[in-house]
Amino acid sequence: MEMALGRRGRRRMAQSVPDSGLTGPVDIPEPEQPEQPKGLRARLSRMRTSVAGTVRGLPKVAKLTWQASPTLTIVLAVITLASGLLPTVTAYIAKVLLDSVVAAIQHRGSTADIVRITLFQFGVLAATAISSALTTIAQSLLQERMTLTIRHQVMKHASDLHLAYFEGSASYDMLRQAAQEAPTRPLSMMTSALGLIRTMITFASMIALLVSISPLLALVALLAPIPAFISQSKYGSRAFWLTFMMSPIKRRMDYLSSLVTTDTYAKETKLFGLGPYFVDRFRKLGVVAYERQRKLTVKRNVSSTSWGLLSTLVGSGIALYIALEAVGGRLTLGDLALYTAAATSVQSSVTGLFTAFSGMYENNLYLDTLYKFLDTTPEITAPAKPRPLPSTVEGHIQFESVSFSYPGADEPALHGVSFEIRPGETVAVVGRNGAGKSTLFKLLCRLYDPTAGRILLDGVDIREYDPVELRTKISAMFQDYVTYQGTAAENIGLGDLNRLTDREHIEDSARRAGADERIARLPTGYDSPLGRWFDQGVSLSGGEWQKIALARAFQREAPILILDEPTSALDAQAEHDLFDRLHTLSRGRTTLYISHRFSTVRQAERILLLDHGKVAEYGTHEALMAADAGYAELFTLQAEAYLK
Ligand SMILES: Nc1ncnc2c1ncn2[C@@H]1O[C@H](COP(=O)(O)OP(=O)(O)OP(=O)(O)O)[C@@H](O)[C@H]1O
């Protein structure tokens, strides 16, 4: 990006600015296609590859269309193919009509013939109109079904993918393309493919007529539109590259837009007066995106029109030749009409063939992204023969030399971590920001797999279990819990889908989390909508939301309880009450919680101190205080602050 600026001062500035879209230059690199050799042979071989690739893409597209709706696919195919003959029939009727008019004028024929032919012509024209209306209906319905089918497939696949997939920006761009661009492409490809066959039918029937008058003319008419095709295919793939390269900029625009239009961000945006700044950046990014699009659209159309003019010139030449032939008496007026129609039709068929093909080629490129996304295999999967979890999981947890690095990170988040938690024990995990505490929890839930070492649950490596089943044994609340735009009951019930409607259990979970009292004060209690996206719901405070999220964790009666800073937003009384209850709540369950408040940490049976991804200390509060090392230092620091 910076390179494109070319001016030294701006380049230096750009280097110090992260490429986040929030600050710095809004330019994005010109879409550059991979270097390709230019010679004729290379071009031909590229064309062969793209033809083969596009043709190979067809069965997949046909399958997608069929999955969306077999009936509509058949309707569309039959009408499209049948309408292939209509132009030839229409042209032929025009000839016959003209000849019978001339015959009637010269008293060689009757008006009854003309009426019959006109009626037939009406029939054909009506059929043309009906088939075009049916095609439109079938296409738009199929498009709806198709969008639904593909979005469903994308959603389903995304829900199966591992967490890390969503954290890489390249894969996120791919996901965006698959979700937004791809749904319209298969039908477009299918329509082009059917159009291609229809045009071939028209073409074959028409060419027969043209060849019969002059093979040379047929050849000229065939060759003229080729340049138009070349320009089409070149710009077709450029458009694809542009969209692909535009994806990051579009995502940044979406993000900026959400910063200004989403309730949770609006407060801070207003406080710091960021609204106009974000709006302006959104506009600037939009201008860059538009400029790219404009250049390409103009280039593409100017180019194809120029090439198209060449085809028109040939068409006019043919018309002139035939007209002169008619004047010379070598052709009838009807022949003239027929041959003119045939010549024009062959012209447009050939252009149509090439345009349909280049359209298919372009659509296929977009679809490749969809297939690539759908082919991405989830990295966290169940083994071929998952070991069934025992009906009563004891909750014995062992970390054995566990190391973990986030994809693309320079330093490991965890390094050689080993410790053991006995069944039913309560352990507090402490450490500075970034020490690796949340990562430890995520590994235990198998949201990631360790890069080295292993984690055992009841003596078995957790990778031997089915991760979905493993997670049913864990009740968890993360720091960045979700605030669902639903009712209070739904917000809690989602913690255990099997008990989504078990109101008694939901109320019990709320009581355990200390959320019951606030819910009772809501306009319609548990049925009150929370959040304002869909209904005029109630806005809760940060602490009240946290209690709801806690209740959701308690909703699942699992043998392992994991709480990542469960009281960060709670008031002192609520925090005290929760930890009071935690003794009862954690009875019979292995419990791990992260906290930065040492008054709550000391209540745990054992304390694990992490430091830069390593276990620094592990033991009871008393033992760690006696050791007088890192934990004792942090504890004293906080205690002194309170006593001052
Ligand atoms: N999704 C991620 N991708 C890449 N790196 C990450 C990701 N999440 C965390 N990290 C990095 O891993 C390290 C450990 O993070 P972790 O969230 O486990 O820390 P923590 O001890 O829970 O911190 P805190 O007390 O601030 O919550 C940090 O350096 C962080 O930058």
Automatic annotation (TrEMBL):
Q: Which UniProt keywords apply?
A: ATP-binding, Cell inner membrane, Cell membrane, Membrane, Nucleotide-binding, Transmembrane, Transmembrane helix, Transport
Superkingdom as given in the UniProt entry: Bacteria
Q: Which Pfam families match?
A: ABC_membrane (PF00664), ABC_tran (PF00005)
Q: Which portions of the sequence form the region Disordered?
A: 1-40
Note the topology in the membrane: Multi-pass membrane protein
Domain ABC transporter per the UniProt entry, residue ranges: 397-637
Q: Which Gene3D superfamilies match?
A: ABC transporter type 1, transmembrane domain, P-loop containing nucleotide triphosphate hydrolases
The keyword Transmembrane helix is annotated on this UniProt entry: yes
> ABC transmembrane type-1 domain location, by residue?
74-362
Query: Which molecular-function annotation in GO is an example for this chain?
Result: ABC-type oligopeptide transporter activity
> Where is the protein localized?
Cell inner membrane
Question: Mainly localized where?
Answer: membrane
Q: Name one GO cellular component term.
A: plasma membrane
Write out the transmembrane intervals: 72-94, 114-142, 207-230, 302-324, 336-357
Q: Which residues form the signal peptide?
A: none
In the UniProt record, does the keyword Cell inner membrane occur? yes
Name the PROSITE patterns for this protein.
Answer: ABC_TM1F (PS50929), ABC_TRANSPORTER_1 (PS00211), ABC_TRANSPORTER_2 (PS50893)
UniProt-listed InterPro entries:
AAA+_ATPase, ABC1_TM_dom, ABC1_TM_sf, ABC_transporter-like_ATP-bd, ABC_transporter-like_CS, P-loop_NTPase, Type_1_exporter
The UniProt similarity line reads:
Belongs to the ABC transporter superfamily. Siderophore-Fe(3+) uptake transporter (SIUT) (TC 3.A.1.21) family.
**Entry protein name:** ABC transporter ATP-binding protein
Please give the organism: Amycolatopsis dendrobii
